[in-house]
Amino acid sequence: MGNKKLKIAVLGPLGTYTHEAAFQKFGQETEYDERNSIADVFRALSPEVPLGVVPQENSIFGIVIETYDILRSPTANFIRGEITLKVEHCLLVRKGVKLNQIQRVMSHEQALGQCRDFIAEKLPSASAVKTPSTAAAAKALLDSPPDCAAICSSICATLFEGLEVLFIGIQNDQSNFTRFFIVSHSQHTLLPPIIEANRQMKALILMPTPPVLVPDPNKSRGIIEHLGLLGLFATRIDRRPSLSATPFGSVYFVEVQKYSTQVVLGNDVESWTRELENSVSRVNYAGGVAILVGIW
């Protein structure tokens, strides 16, 4: 990618877990383009900002709905990798604020859900306030009344002067991990060596399926038959409602992986891509819909 510094869009401000995950993967020689929402990260992707990092799923609270809702309307954007980050939530307050003063707890909805047990036990009367990100909650504390607290990373106490950590490790489960997708401007975006060298032979396939109003054995049996036509090893399936005019349709996200004990080489990636394209074509030829939205 030449000598030009790589620019990556992340959910900002600096100090979010998304920023931390991106930094873990790409390091300090990368320029991080802070965005206000997950949707803004996708909108920022361009030849000038070729990559973005967005949260995909938390091991406690489940999938990040905003990410999947954007992915269910396919664009040129393409998933090119993943990052897993161990998450340790902290309760931050303005310096000097005590626990019994707190009436509002601010954070991203995922963090609020991951810490609901702590909130119920220690702050049963406090109201939960959703913010675009965990770091945005910490930043908002600076201009909020002293009865507010934020759930975020401890790094925010060093990034935003005037804040301090009141509690550490307040998540429901200490085994708390979040997986992030690395998304590119297009399928043909040139990737940095750190991604090319860590191929996992995975893919994500989008499969919209209309509701079955009246079962008809002479027509396609829907998602089960289409999964069989794919002929690939599915490691997970997620569902979101479709955006079609007919209510209660589904959009399935099928994550697949190629089994291999060998070191992944360039020609292996090419053959994996061909295998995926052939599988998607079989479903489409049979009257279904399958769209390849990521290979990594």
TrEMBL record:
Species this protein is from: Galerina marginata (strain CBS 339.88)
Domain Prephenate dehydratase: start-end pairs: 7-185
GO cellular component entries: cytoplasm
Taxonomic classification: Eukaryota, Fungi, Dikarya, Basidiomycota, Agaricomycotina
Annotated metabolic or biological route of this protein: Amino-acid biosynthesis; L-phenylalanine biosynthesis; phenylpyruvate from prephenate: step 1/1
Presence of keyword Amino-acid biosynthesis: yes
Keyword check for Methyltransferase: no
Name of the protein in its database record: prephenate dehydratase
The EC number(s) this enzyme carries: 4.2.1.51
BP term (GO), one: L-phenylalanine biosynthetic process
PROSITE patterns associated with the record: PREPHENATE_DEHYDR_3
Keyword annotations of the record: Amino-acid biosynthesis, Aromatic amino acid biosynthesis, Lyase, Phenylalanine biosynthesis
Top-rank taxon: Eukaryota
InterPro entries cross-referenced by the UniProt entry: Chor_mutase/pphenate_deHydtase (IPR008242), Preph_deHydtase (IPR001086)
CDD domains: PBP2_PDT_like
Entry's Gene Ontology molecular function annotations: prephenate dehydratase activity
